[in-house]
Design a protein that fits this description.
Elements lengths: L2 H22 L12 H13 L12 H13 L4 H12 L11 H20 L12 H18 L6 E5 L5 E5 L4 E5 L2 H8 L9 E4 L1 H7 L7
Length: 219
């Protein structure tokens, strides 16, 4: 797939996330623990435009990052201020942001935007899976398989990801393994810890299945 085609998908997924946030309003619940939509919107803007975003991996900055995020979320409680925050996210990263580099944007944001769109959609009482373009689905699968070793590194059993079309990917090798089956989008959500809000099935030995029931993938 051409880089221009991939970037079109990333841009489209950004717009879809922005529209989902706007439709939900500032105080809707999300699947991100403790966050309403205004917190998620603040996170997305800070992630792309603030040096404090390094606090996600550099612990000395984590407190300041949390304080800034909470401040920005508090400032976005009205519909008008919230819409302005979402518009800032929709307009893209600043000129000097690493995310302004196409390859960084592609690698970091396609799955990020998909996951967070579903964090808003699936926090409601009623939801249904989206039907995505085949190209988008394939890009998500490539992203998932690239990250699978990291995502499942703490899994207590072996993990095999299985698509409905028969494609399979070994995410973690171990003698005692579980096959997790479902559409690519649902496998992606499971891998990113949304285990209670995705449509997947499991196959494996009784011991492995018992172990996997209490496991939740984490980065």
């Amino acid at each position: 797939m051409l880089v221009s085609e991939v970037m079109h998908l990333v841009h489209a997924s950004r717009l879809a996330l922005a529209e989902t946030l706007l439709a939900a309003g500032p105080t809707a619940q999300t699947l991100c623990a403790g966050w309403q939509t205004r917190h998620l919107a603040a996170h997305l803007v800070l992630r792309e435009n603030s040096l404090l975003a390094a606090g996600t991996i550099f612990k000395p900055l984590s407190k300041k990052l949390d304080e800034k995020l909470q401040h920005d979320a508090d400032q976005a409680q009205s519909p008008e201020s919230y819409a302005a925050l979402v518009r800032r996210f929709r307009s893209g990263p600043g000129k000097y942001s690493p995310f302004a580099i196409e390859k960084v944007d592609q690698a970091a944001n396609l799955s990020e935007y998909f996951i967070h769109t579903e964090d808003v959609r699936r926090a409601r009482a009623q939801w249904a899976p989206r039907v995505l373009d085949p190209e988008y689905t394939e890009m998500l699968w490539q992203s998932l398989t690239r990250m699978s070793r990291l995502l499942f590194r703490k899994a207590p059993v072996g993990i095999i990801l299985a698509r409905p079309d028969g494609q399979r990917h070994v995410a973690k090798k171990a003698p005692n393994a579980v096959s997790i089956s479902g559409p690519v989008t649902e496998l992606m959500l499971y891998a990113f810890g949304r285990t209670e809000h995705c449509l997947v099935t499991f196959e494996g030995g009784d011991t492995a299945l018992e172990i996997i029931r209490s496991y939740k993938p984490t980065l």
